[in-house]
Amino acid sequence: MKHDLPAFALLIDADNVRQDGVGPIIEEITRHARVTVRRIYGDFTTPHLAGWKVKLADHAIHPIQQYRNSVGKNASDSALIIDAMDLLHSRRFEGFCLVSSDGDFTRLATRIREDGLVVYGFGEKHAPKAFVSACDRYIYVENLLTEPVTEASPDVGGAERSTEGSVEPGSELGVESAPSGLDLSTTKLAPTFSSTFKPPALARDLLMRAHTNVADDTGWALLGHLSSHIHANHSDFDPRTYGCAKFIDLLQKTESFELVQRPYKNGQSYFCRPARSTTPAGSGRNAPGSDDKSTFNAALLRAVAEATGSNGWALVSAIGQKLKAQGLDVRGSGHATLTSALNATARVDMKGSGAARYFRLRSQK
Predict the structure, then answer these.
(1) How far apart are CA 250 and CA 276, in angstroms?
(2) Strand order in 314-315's β-sheet?
(3) Are residue 155 and residue 136 in the same domain, yes or no?
(4) Which one of 43, 105, 156, 169 has the minimum C-beta count within 10 Å?
(5) In this predicted model, what pLDDT tens digit does every residue of 300-341 receive, in sequence order?
(6) pTM above 0.70, yes or no
(7) CATH number of residue 302's parent domain
């Protein structure tokens, strides 16, 4: 029998996971992956792990008993790591789920990734940053146990599916680099304890930085590319941290982006760009339509001159840094990107594309 879903191994550190979090974790994984190995490690003869018996039966998890042979030593961690390496070398899996908040598994996560497999971590928000960053994605259990606010918003993932076998732009992850569009940001679960969400506005700067890196020359960015870029650089990013069920909900709640739906490949996809009315705090003097437009253009051209190298050209990122040093921000100029702001001056020449885009002041005749 051929399975469409990728095979995953689920390894749980019983000493560092909430019992009520196991069900939501498995539900989160099995939406888009097939968990063929489910193991949990610990000394189940101790009182604080005795309650696992019912949970293990409910979710078909195989317990690996490890007695504490020495005081202060955690034999279950060693057993989990040994089993993980055995499973890795069997070449039967496309990814691993490591359920723990223990930073001792940091090297295990990086070793699995070195073999080209995907690693998802699940744990609590006090998990060490090193372990969080070592995983392709790290999902906080607190987000799974709290129901995010759901609004009537478009289903980005569903609208962007393509039959070409490439990465689905609306997915959090793609088939080629991760298991079959595994989206770990949309599951809705019944709340089991209260949690305080971060205000969506706190995600604004992160979203804006990512947009700058993936936007095209017209200033529009595909939502799937935007999401993928953020996850590639922030493994613990999750819209549910901000009380949003989906990535598109978070963009809408920041009130900082315009959203449009356009034809893309074999379907429709959502694109975004910073809202024209978006003006960073302290930069009101550069708002679109203000009398200071000429002042901004003068500062922009000055930034080009200061960033120009010995070859007579200035790299676009260097221009942005010089502009920022003057206390200005292109987002408050009425232009979606630095490139569009520069071209609007009609005073510069351009060559190259993407991050390797260069400008120079046009000679005045």
Answers:
(1) 18
(2) 314-315, 358-361, 348-351
(3) no
(4) 43
(5) 888 888 889 888 899 988 888 888 777 777 766 677 788 888
(6) no
(7) 3.30.420.610
